[in-house]
Write a structure and sequence with these properties.
This protein has helices at 15-27, 40-46, 63-69, 83-90, 109-116, 148-159, 172-180, 182-199, 204-225, 229-236, 242-252, 255-274; strands at 8-11, 33-37, 52-56, 73-76, 99-102, 121-126, 136-142, 162-166. It is an alpha/beta fold. It has 2 domains: 8-171, 3-Layer(aba) Sandwich (Rossmann fold), CATH 3.40.50; 182-274, ProC C-terminal domain-like fold. It has an 8-stranded mixed β-sheet, sandwiched between helices. α4 runs parallel beside α5 (109-116) and α8 crosses α9 (204-225). NADPH binds at residue 64. GO terms for molecular function: pyrroline-5-carboxylate reductase activity. Residues 8-106 form the Pyrroline-5-carboxylate reductase catalytic N-terminal domain. NADP(+) binds at residues 11-16.
Length: 277
């Protein structure tokens, strides 16, 4: 059986931090987690989870330093604009050997190092929203002070809620355009296929059921067989059949080019945001 993870603090257990928390709790491998939120109401929502101590800044203004001081791994889950102030607050209480993990989009490893120090192990991460159901794709990029053992530990942490890809920091934003934004692309495709079904005279309920379960089923088939998606597509596409005709229309519309253009646009916007635009 895998060993327990060391003590963890999640500072700002909002949507993404909360999703990671759920994965950790489900795994049963994190017996000591302290989480912080701004309000008592949000903190109360997380009370009662196995192994979790939930603190509210509203009730205890020192909650972040309390949580960080007792942790071997500190996840930074606050909004990107709030990260520098939070790091300045917790830097003096971080334990020797601590690993600081960023969940904040656009905040560089260099920014972290400039505040917590060059000798503190920092790992930048980008999970996506399917973390909520244990199906995340998380990209992680290690700072220069993070050892191979540190990275392996952070990988284990994120594997409690999905799969992990290790990469260089300059690829984090590109990963975000695929897996980070990707769920929205899939939901858009489901919306549009549902609309096509409505246009064929199906009721709203039947159109939704058809489109949604087709995507869910196709993804489950891909997951179960581990086949190449192109091979699974070929099996559905009989020569001179109906699917072949439909695929020809989609390929004629340069679907591959549209996805390349869309992800390029997302990457350009990511760079604008990093530059403060």
């Amino acid at each position: 059986m895998a060993e327990d993870l060391p003590s963890i603090a999640i500072l700002g257990a909002g949507s993404m931090g909360g999703a990671i928390l759920q994965g950790l709790v489900r795994s049963g491998r994190a017996p000591r987690i302290v989480v912080t939120n701004r309000t008592a109401a949000k903190a109360a929502d997380l009370e009662g989870l196995a192994g979790v101590t939930s603190l509210a800044l509203e009730q205890d203004p020192a909650a972040n330093t309390t949580a960080a001081a007792g942790a071997d791994i500190v996840l930074i889950g606050v909004k990107p604009v709030m990260v520098p102030d939070l790091l300045r607050e917790i830097a003096p209480v971080l334990r020797p050997g601590v690993i600081v993990v960023s969940l904040a989009a656009g905040v560089t490893l260099a920014t972290f190092a400039s505040i917590v120090g060059d000798d503190v192990a920092v790992v930048r991460s980008m999970p996506n929203t399917p973390a909520v159901v244990g199906k995340a794709v998380t990209g992680i990029a290690a700072g220069p002070a993070a050892s191979a053992a540190d990275v392996a530990l952070v990988r284990e942490l994120f594997e409690t809620c999905g799969v992990v890809i290790e990469l260089a920091e300059d690829q984090i934003d590109a990963l975000g355009t695929i897996s980070g934004s990707g769920p929205a692309y899939v939901f858009l495709l489901i919306e549009d296929l549902t609309e096509a079904a409505r246009g064929k005279g199906f009721s709203d309920a039947d159109a939704r059921l058809m489109a949604e379960q087709t995507f869910i089923g196709a993804a489950a088939l891909l997951d179960a067989t581990r086949e190449d998606p192109a091979e699974l597509r070929r099996r559905v596409t009989s020569p001179k059949g109906t699917t072949e005709r439909a695929i020809a229309v989609l390929q004629g519309a340069n679907l591959a080019g549209i996805f390349a253009e869309a992800t390029d646009a997302a990457l350009a916007r990511s760079r604008e945001l990093a530059a403060g635009a």
